[in-house]
Amino acid sequence: MKSADRVKKLRDSGVQELRNQENDIKEQMFRLRFQWSMGQTETLNKMRQLRKDRARMLTILREKQKEN
Predict the structure, then answer these.
(1) Any residues with CB less than 8 A from the CB of 29 and at least 6 apart, and which?
(2) Are 64 and 29 in contact (CB under 8 A)?
(3) Whether 52 contacts 29, CB under 8 Å
């Protein structure tokens, strides 16, 4: 999925749904960091993508909170 599609999907989501997705991403990142420390190097690209998605999500959350 392209980043523009991800952003559009995130903007259409509600605040609570975004918070739930953020928690899911945090858990995934924790697991991937653990795998990374165990030497499974294929997780690096996934970690980078999750970090960027989380940043996008937090940005959109802040925008929505400022609107209210």
Answers:
(1) 47, 50, 51, 54
(2) no
(3) no
In the predicted model, what is the mean pLDDT of residues 7-30? 90
- pLDDT score recorded for residue 10: 84
C-alpha distances (whole Å) from 4 to each of 10, 29, 33 are 10, 22, 26
31 within 8 A of 46, measured Cβ to Cβ: no
For 43, 47, 50, the CA distances from 31, given in Å and listed in that order, are 10, 10, 12
Of residues 1 and 59, more confidence is placed in 59
Using the structure block, give the residue that is written with the tokens 């960091």: 33
The end-to-end CA distance of the chain, in Å, is: 30
The tokens describing 3, both together, are 């980043």
**Which pTM value belongs to this model?**
0.80
Handedness of CA 60, 63, 67, 68 (dihedral sign): positive
